[in-house]
Each structure stands twice: as C-alpha cells, then as structure tokens.
Amino acid sequence: MTHKYIGKRIQRNEDPRLLTGQALFVDDVNIPGMLHAAFLRSDYAHARLKSIDVSAARERPGVVAVFTAEDMGADWKPGPPLVSPPPTVKDVTFFSRTQVPLVKDKVRHAGEAIAVVVAESRYIAEDAVEDIQVDLEPLEAVADLEKAMRPDSVRVHDDLDSNLAAHIVQVKGDYDKIRGEADLLIKRRIVIDRGAAAAMENRGIVANWDVKSQHLTVWDTTQAPIPIRNGLATRLGLSAHQVRVIAPFLGGGFGPKMMMFYPEEMLIPWLAIKLGRPVKWIEDRRENFYATTQERAQIHDVEMALTREGRILGIHDTFLHDTGAYDPYGLTIPLNTQSHMMSGYDVANFYSEIKVVFTNKIITTPIRGAGRPQGIYIAERLLDIAAKELGLDPIEIRKLNFIPPEAFPYEHKIIDQAFAPLILDSGNYRPVLEKAAVLIGYDQFVNEEQPRLRAEGRHIGIGIVSFIETTGVGPYEGARITVQTDGKINVATGVGTQGQGHFTSFAQVVAEQLGVAVKDVHLVTGDTAEFHWGTGTFASRGSVVAGNAINASAAGVRKKILKLASEVLKAPEDELELENGQVRVADIPQQSISLGELAALANPLRGAVEPGTEPGLEATAYFGPKYGAAAFGTHAMILEVDPETMMVEIKRYVVVEDCGTVLNPMILEGQIHGGVAMGIGNAYYEKLVYDDNAQLLNASLADYLIPTASEVPRIVIGHEETRSPLNPLGTKGVGEAGTIPVPALFAQALENALAEYNLEILETPLSPNRLFELIQDKEKSR
Amino acid sequence: MSNTVEVAFTVNNIQYVRNVEPRMLLSDFLRHELGLTGTHVGCEHGVCGACTVLFDGQSVRSCLMFAVQANGHEILTIEGLGTIDNLHPIQQSFIEAHGLQCGFCTPGIILTLVPFLESNPDPSEEEIRHAISGNICRCTGYQNIVEAVKLAAEKMSPNT
Amino acid sequence: MKPAPFEYFAPATVEEALGYLAEYGYEAKVLAGGQSLIPMMNFRLAQPAVIVDINNIPELGYIRGNNGDLQIGALARHNQVESNPLVARQTPLIFEAMPHIATLQVRNRGTFGGSIAHADPSAELTAISVALEGSFTLRSQRGDRVIPANEFFLGLFTSVLEPDELLIEARFPPLPARSGCALEEVSRRPHDFALVGVAAVITLDQGNRCQDARLVFFSVGDGPVEARQAVGMLNGNELNSELLRLAAETAAKRDVDPGSDIHASAEYRRHLAGVLAYRALEKAYLRSRQ
Questions:
Q1: Domains of chain B by range and CATH?
Q2: What is the ipTM for the molecules in this complex?
Q3: Distance from A435 to chain B by nearest Cα, in Å?
Q4: pTM for the full model?
C-alpha cells in the first residue's frame, strides 16, 4: 500500500513557532490582575499538624490571601481515585487513599502542601511563606518497603491496619506443578529503585474565573485536559460547559503530567473563584522533586523454571510495589509489571503476587515505561542468568522462547493495566532480534573484536535484550475535522501534546485521506472548548487511538466531499480524485473544484439542508481499540568500563523497533533517541536518594543527574513492520520503547565487560560507585 | 521594602529603561516585564540551560543574573534571532533535522550555538556535544540536535 | 525559587566597594560572577541583606605578567583565563583545569576570584592554587595583606577572608625549569563537581631526581588537601613507576580521609584518590622530562 504522506519524513508544522518563542506555555499566560501562589510545604515526611498561624503572612504587604485546610471549610476534599481496582480478578484487596488539597491532620510525604499564599508576585508569596508559623510533630517515617510491611511499622494511614494498599494475585497455568519437572530453577531477589520524569518544564496552572459569564478557564500543564475539566466542574459545583481547560504547548510530559487532581490542580481554580481574580502557580524545580509524582521502586522475589535446553516452563514472582503516600493511580504500574514479566516469551505457567505498599514518599504514578521496565528487567535478567548456567548464548535463549509468529494473537491469560485480557495482537520477533544483532556486529564483536581488546587489558562488553510494549490502550479518543472555505483543514482532538509531533503526524493522516498538503492541516489539541470527549496522552496511545479517530473522521469528511463534488462536477464518485487541495475528475483536469470552494457550496445560507444531512464538510468520529497493540523491540549496546574508576563509555548503541505502521519516521526516531536517553539515565545516572526519614537528599538538577549530550551515544535505528490488526492504520505505539529495556541492557553489558569478576547484577540503577562496591564484595567473597 | 533601581539596557536592539527590584532575576524580567516569553525557566539554579540568553554576545544563564546587572549591557533572546518569516539558519536547520520535540530547552540551546558556531564554523561531533553539554534536553536524546548543528554550520559556511 | 530581598550597591571603584564592606560586614556578600552565590540565594540557603556588585570595577579584570609572576585579577572571568596565552604558558595547570569548571555559560560569568573566595572544597582552583604555591592579595580599608594559598582555606566554604575584605588578586610564581604539571579528576558528567580530583606538580633537579613534588587533592575533605606523606616519599629520589605507585597508595591510605555523601562513598573516594594520584604523578613526571 503506497502512501503519499503517511510514512514520510515530513517536517513538523509546529516547529517555526517553537523556534521563535511564539509558542504558548502555561507560564507565558499573563492576565491583567493576575495573582501568584506559593506553597508552604512540609520539611518532614511524616508529621502531625498541631497548629498553624498564618496571621503574619496575611499582614505582609502584597499578600492578598493565605489559606489552610481549615480555611477551605466544606470545599476541602481529597482528590478522586483515578483508576479503580480491576473488576475481573477475584480476591483483590484495595484500599483507596487519595491526595488532599492541603494537609489537614498529618503530613504523609516531604513536600506535602500545608498552606497556600496568594500575592502580587511570586517573590512576595515566597517571602510570606516564610512568615507562616507551623507546629509539626515529627513522626517516625516509613521509607523502606520491607520495613513498611512489618506488623510493628508506623502506619501512613492511621485508619488502616497496615501499610498494605493493595493485594492482587494473577495466575496462568500451574507453576507449582511444573516446578518439580524443571531442570533448572533460577531464584533471585531483584531490587528496582525510583526515578523522576524531570521534564524540562515544571508543572503550572493559571485559572481565571470570569464572574460575568460564569465561566472558568484553566491553563494546565496536563496530559489530560478533558478529565481535568470534567472533574473540576464536579468538584467546583459547576456544569461541564462552564469550564474550559487548555493544555497549550507542554515542555515534556513523560507521565507525571497525566496524574490528575494534584493538590495544586484542586486548589488554584478554587482560589480563582474564591478571590475573583486570576491566579497563577508555577512549580519551581525544587518543588518538582517533592510535589510531582515519581515511579519505579519495587522489590521482587522471583523464580524462573526452565528445561535444560533453555525453555521457560514458568515464572513465579511475589513483589512489593511502592505507591508512596497515596494510591490514586490504583494498580496500573504493577499490573504493567506483571504484564511484561513474561515479555514476548511463550510462558505457560505464571504466578505473580503484588503487594502495593504505602510509604512516606511522593505518590507513584506512571513515568515513561510505567511499570514495564521492571517486568522486562526481571524477564531479561533471569534469562541471562539461565543462559550463563546452561552455557547458552543470550540471543539463542531468547529465540528459543519467543512466541512464534503463527501463535498470534497470543493470550497471556492475565489481565493488563486496562483490565482487559492481556493479548498480544501481532508480532514477528526473530527478525527484529536478528537485525539488531547484525547492526551491532554481534558475531564479529564476540568472536574477534572482544577477545582482541580483552587481551590488551580492556574491559569491553556487549549486551542484547528484547522486550514487548503494550500500547494504544482504550478507552477511546475522537476527532472533528472541518474543511474551511479557505481550503485549509481544521482538526480538533482531545489528546494533548508534549512534543511528540502530533501536529504533524496527525496532519499526515488527514492529508492522506483528503489530498491536501500537510502544512495546510491545522490541529487543535488539548483545548476542551474545541473538543471535549476523550482521555489523554499516556501509555503510548496517541498515534494509535487519536490517530485512528482522526483517520476515521477524515474518511467521513472524504465521503461528504465526494458526494457533493459528484453533484457539482456531474461525475460519478468513483471517477473523482482528491489531490493538491482539489477534487477533480480523473483524466479531465479542467473539471475540478477546490476544497475551499466546495466547502462554501456545502453551506448554502439559503436553500434546504435535506433531512439527514448536515451543512459544511465536517465529520466527527471516535476510535476505541478492542485492546492494546503490542509493539516489540530489541536494543543492543557495546560499552567499555574503566576498571580503575568504574566510569562507563557507550561505544555503540542499536535499536530495532517494530511498531507496525510508522506515521512519520523522523518523529519515530526522535522518540527512540529521547527514550534511550531517558533509559540511560534510569540505568546509570539517575537515582533519587531518600534517607531513613524519607527525606529526599538530592532535590536539584545538580545532584539528580540527567544525561547530557556527553552521556548519550549515537543511536542506530532499524525497523521492522508487523501491522496491527487492531486498527485501520495498522499502527502501534512507540513513545516508551526507547526507555523500557535499557536497565536490563546495562546489566547484561556490564556483566559482560567485567566478565572476570563474574558479577550478577540484580538491581537498578547502577553507578560507578555501585559497580565498585559489587566488585569489592565479589573480591571479598573469594 | 520595595527599593527599586533604575536600569537601562538593550534587548534585541531595543533600548529599555525600567525600575526593578534588585532581586528580580533577569529571566523573570525578560519573560514577565518585557513579555519575551521565548526564554524558558527550567531550574533556577544554573544547571539546565533553558534560560540561556546572549549577554554582550556571550551565552549566560539568565536565571543566575539579576536584572539590575544588565544595566548598560546588550542582551539577545530567541525573539531577536529570527522570525517565522525570516528564520536564522540555525532555526531553519532545527526544523529540517528534527532537532526539537517539545521545544522547551530549544531557545537556550540555539542561543548557546550562536557564539559557538561563530568561533567554530566547522565543528566536529565531539565539539558540538561538548558545546551543548550545558543544556539539558529530556526529549531528543541530542542526536538530531547534533545533526541540526552540522546542517547549520553548512548553511552558514561562506562556501554555500 | 526566588531570592529574598536585599539592598543593592554597584560601586565603580575598589575603594567604594571596600566602603560598603566595612559598613555592612557580615550582612554583605560580594557579587562577582554569581554562578555560585545566586543559586544559593535562589534556594534561599543564602539570604544576604546587602549585595555589593563588583562587576562594574573593570580594573579588577586583568591577567598579566609581573616580574615572571602571573597575576590574575579577581574579576577575570574563567573564559578569559581559559583563552589567555600567558596562562597557558606559565600556569598550564590552571589552563588544564578550565574546561572542567562547570559549563561554558557558567565560565562566561564565573570569576577566578569568586571561585577562590567561595572556598568550595570541590573547586579545582583551590587545590591548584595550593599546588602552584600561589598567594592572594586581600584588601580592606585597613590595608592589604598577602596570604599564601595553603593558608587561605580554612574549611567548608570558609577562608581567612574577613567580612570587610575583598580578594583583589591571585599571584602565581613561575614554575622552575624541568617542571611538569597534571590535573586528574573523575566526575559523573564532564561538568559536574569532581567526585575526587588531584593536582600534581613535579620539578626535577639537574640529576633528574625529584627536587620538589606537590600533590594536592580536592573533593576529599573540607578544603584542598596536601598529600604530605606521599610527596615525602618522592622528594630527593629518582622517580619511576614503582615509586609513583607507592606514593599514590600512600596518598590514598594516609594523606586523605574522604567522607561519604550522596554521590560517592568514602571507600570509593579513597580508591579513586589512589588511582588519580598515580595518573597525575605519572603525567606530571613525563611532562617534567620534556
């Protein structure tokens, strides 16, 4: 199927504005009379709020108001749970505890907001925050997952019997039965630690209540403007149409901006209505470390059973998952971990038990990968260990276990994060792995280059890992497309955009259907006044779900165009072509009409619109997939370790990705580059250091190390294309693919580089210091 | 205490005279007093580089300067480099090489590149990566930024 | 993260600046490059009541030779020091340090004097000043005093600088013939503060014996740390890899006592100290023979 626009490297429509400072971000919003908010945040991770005196703060010149939880009266209520527990799995335990606008009884994580100051400037607001006298009685903090589960542990939520937030078991087949038959049992404890998304743009909200029109406008750095709008309306006692939420350009999302009803999101609009003046709150970088959600901490006790040939018979896993102080996001992340623990392997027996645990840390919600990296880390590490024990090559053991192409759609027989049965729709894994091996020069490296360099005393290693990524989940998205009388096409959809190029890739889908130039398709995203049905940008679903809704809507417009043009040009529909913004009769170029003219004709002010027809050339359509499409990929890397300093240099990096139909290869590659950079951060540089009092010790970009251009290598990308049968475009998501397997890849490559020490890496993140310790431990135990 | 100081300086070739509180950061002054919101703020502790502007032709972090320090000096922000109808070759190159995604860090990177390319008209990949290593990007993984710089160097070379 | 309010003065001469410092003492902080001070003020870790901005005193921004010595004015920016041929020639160790100091943008504003006065134990220039036997001129209304680098640093962000004093100049004597210098450091990303760093200077005598060795660490304690036992093993002796390795081990075992923090453990730092000391000594030795 040859496409004219889909699959092409088309330059982005949104770039000129972004490059010249003409793109609106939330902090750019400036409304006359606007006030600025700043928060008093707790220094303690766990403390009882004894008393608070804001009188001095209120008296400071320039301060308009100060609010505590008390001051909110009946309007104080916790946020709504965002994801309920799965309905289809039996014996689920789930205790829903959600975040609060301001602390009422006790503080449950460092940085939790206790009071809000609204003043003429942010500078004055911060001065006034220092005027507030607060009496906090520190309590013992719950920082460690295992300690949190001890019966004598201090409780994060006093009304619960323990710190258990949720408990769920998923089973496939019968692991206990096959365990006895296994030739090899690999049993390990694997520890995975937290990370922050650290988008370059911190969060922010501007709210404006227009009392005369009784209308609230909110600019919000959210990945989910529609649910925010609906939820705010409910919370504030307004009807949905009185609220407009705009997510303008966002400086990166990566997940935490999909968390909804953050304390600030609940408060700032309320303040705007209460004070009758626009209010702005912009998160600063320090707040971002304390008040924006984080992810990843899990402890797994896992066992893999294999035959002596290397076939996986089953996996048995119990794990603790850190949800932080509250659990608004339900079981999404740990369910993703479960869904990816079997990865793309044919595993007949599976037992996985999750215990979600409250701790005195900021809430955990999905960050790029969203629980998948943890599952993949487990699968790949156990396979690597098994390969070593059985004397198999890492590539061979993976190929041996891949789900074969004829077995799709393949049912993993557990439920995934969308509460749907985990079904991998399509895939062809071997060619992807083989291509990656070729691109990295695997055989040549292992057989020639590595032995030679090793003889010179160099510690150079290779790693190759595979992964699946469930993407494109429902529920649905929609789009409305209109042909304007100037010939330009207007598209409105609900998903927001945080840099993924939706303005262009979606335009390509429309251009393909309507025969217009991509630059003549104008998208509006993330504005509930333009489109108010849908969910948001997460789980690598934008191009799949919104893309297909746009495709369906464009098809609807195309139908109307052909019908009207057929009458106007007096030719049958099947003889008409859409090209260059014109409709014309094939082989008779003079018989044509521009789309703009046609649009004008479609809206006669006089003359009847017949029953069952609509004016204009406009259509709205929705798309909801049956279940999420599963993408697949392989990453390979060669790295060198300085055995004295433990500093690491990546020499070569390859990604081969199969995400079905590619809308724009340039944009796809950019997503992979960025995903890998984030994965490298997760694997070797980024670590959130909490002490025993659940205090974050490195809350700044000087101490939380995000990779720069010096740390990220050149990445070579290869493609395979296995179309998804789940949607007309045949596409799968790819936004998280760069990130997911990187920690597993680092572990394998580092073990390989430091082969003489025979390390077994069962944790992430790593660092030069940690490598040093692992080697020291190994030397001592000899 | 709202002591203000009168300052006079040039931004994008326009002279401004204003009264500012000494503690007002140059980044806030540019964005909110002058409405030049193309300069972005990412950290306010001098690490991320999103706030980079040119100060007397040199790249500096505007979050690590007070507006009063700009008195008598010349500043260039992204708005002064090019417009949608008249893009600077660096800006044009970023479009062609897909050197930006969310665009938040981009103005800071581009302004870092202006003096860099002036003194390094034919940079190697290593030199480019080193030059932009003071600007954090969370979206692109830097590879296409490097491509954009190479393309810009080509466009700006006197031989083309 | 906005700074707390302060009173602001921008003197045009050194005398004027000294007048403010004399008047306000501990309440005042000097603003030079601002690359260390302003982040601390934005975090409100520092809340000086008075800021004395010395950036409008051009006479402090010099780099010049004087009777063989190198004089660097307090306001000389790092990028000026980096590109000055005199520095490259006379104090190659300073020249070698420059690219390690933060980022390009920070070096466009940050000053030599500011870095010294800030007395950050992770700063290359503190250790290098000691290794090069530099001295600093401190001026106040009470007069001038010249302090050798190895007496200047007292501890974490603390020096002998009095509140009414301004650091005016750093001065470095010429290196003797047959000298070689080297700087080695390890940091997570190139522009980060070093996990451990060391500056080495080796001077050979006519007989190719070590006449004078200097080894000064940074990022291992509260200030620059001279490896006295290590250099004691080298002075007066003929140098070879074996001896250099021994000296490096001694430096790591005996001369430094690093602490643990979020970036590195004490053991790892101690290990790195040994590794880097050897590399620096070897390089300095090789260069001294050129």
A1: 5-79 (3.10.20.30), 89-156 (1.10.150.120)
A2: 0.97
A3: 22
A4: 0.97
